[in-house]
Design goal:
By secondary structure, the protein is of the alpha+beta class. It has one domain (about 5-160). Helix content is about 20%, strand content about 30%. It has helices spanning about 35-45, 50-55, 140-145, 150-160; strands spanning about 5, 30, 65-75, 80-90, 95-100, 115-120, 120-130, 135. Strands 1, 2, 3, 4, 5, 6, 7 and 8 form an 8-stranded mixed beta sheet that branches. A hairpin with a 2-residue loop joins strand 4 (about 80-90) and strand 5 (about 95-100). About 40% of the residues are buried.
Length: about 170
């Protein structure tokens, strides 16, 4: 199986939001395409994507508080897809536009570069709630056990419990 590259970093530089140092990194974590736990997280995020996009469309997307993880195609290397966070700026039917929130590892681009893609290419979503917590971010939760205790604790501290959202 070829691994799928998943970026741990959530909202690097391109957003106006402050995140812990542990998140503001471009660390790639590889998962096999048949990893059951990661695929379950992606399935859960996708099952709630329409609700998230409906909610986000009624908000100020210019705030930088709404993001999706885009499954970008990658050529060469050991992975065929890089899942990378994008700060959401526009929702137009089944097309999403935004800017890269992380430095790509497997394709040309840089933090802040504009991207546009179909909703079918979304593997996760997240938003900062009024409670100051990060909602969604299902794939990040799967990555947590692989992190050092301090890094994991920093990220866990900002994650809202699953199911506690405004969707």
């Amino acid at each position: 199986m070829r691994p799928r590259a998943l970026l741990l970093a959530l909202f690097l530089g391109a957003t106006a939001l402050c995140v812990p140092a542990a998140i503001a990194q471009d660390r790639v974590v590889n998962f096999a395409t048949d990893d059951a736990e990661m695929n379950s997280a992606i399935d859960t995020a996708r099952s709630r994507l329409d609700a998230f996009l409906g909610y986000a469309a009624r908000q100020d997307l210019g705030s930088g508080a709404y993001s999706v993880k885009y499954a970008a195609p990658v050529s060469g290397g050991s992975a065929d897809t890089e899942h990378i966070w994008v700060t959401l700026l526009q929702i137009d039917g089944d097309r999403l536009s935004g800017v890269l929130a992380n430095q790509p590892a497997g394709f040309e681009g840089a933090v802040g570069d504009p991207v546009s893609f179909a909703t079918a290419e979304v593997s996760d979503w997240a938003y900062w709630g009024a409670d100051g917590k990060l909602h969604g971010s299902y794939t990040t939760r799967v990555i947590l056990p692989q992190l050092a205790n301090e890094e994991r604790a920093q990220i866990e501290a900002i994650l809202a419990p699953i199911g506690e959202d405004d969707l």
